Amino acid sequence: MNQLGKVYLVGAGPGDPGLMTLKGKALLECADVVVYDALVSPPVLAMINPEAEQINAGKRKGMHSMSQEEISQLLVEKAQEAAIVVRLKGGDPFIFGRGGEEMEELVAAGIAVEVVPGITSGIAAPAYAGIPLTHRKHSSSVTFVTGHEGAGKYRPAVNWSAIAHGSETIVIYMGLHNLPYIVDKLLEAGLEAQTSVALVRWGTRPEQEELRGTLATIVQQVDEAKFLAPAIVVIGSVVTLHEVLSECRPRS
After folding, report:
1. In the prediction, which pLDDT does 243 show?
2. Residue 47 annotated to the active site
3. What domains lie within the chain, and their CATH numbers?
């Protein structure tokens, strides 16, 4: 096999271009090919070398432009044609970003590959909403979990009962579509109906917005507000700190 290049799995962060890592930015500026996801923000895309080939491989619910298999094969092909191939993924490649799967495929194909971590939205979005995930008076533990499980997983379902009792703060990625089911499961597991909940949409971007409620009210609030994805869900008493800290949020 004629291999010329190397693939870099680069985390683009949650949207604010100021949160892009220096290493990731440098790779974008010298890349020959960039294969990017749907949630990468326009200001981050603007960092890409204007001479680079840019390929949108974004996958959104109901609008899958490329399958995961097609993306992996594309990366293999491009690494045989170009020196620096960047696979640009929203947030962090290894946090619900399928970066581990893509790296496995590249290693199996004999392609040189390296991961460049990014700031994940599960940390950044709550921070920009004035919600610290840990606080000595509220939470000493955090659980990150996906609310959208793929077919053919290593197990059939998230154990929401274990999640409910596993830590004091729960952060759910891609949880908006299945929120009614998730809320029911957490209530069945024994969480109080008045447990605080916050949803943060387009976290760290200028269009960021939040919706706050409780496990008892949040599903109806989402329907009434027509609150749409992408959004991070935060559950726990740390959400109450939003009232005090939200005015100190960073400005992107």
Report:
1. 87
2. no
3. 6-116 (3.40.1010.10), 121-247 (3.30.950.10)
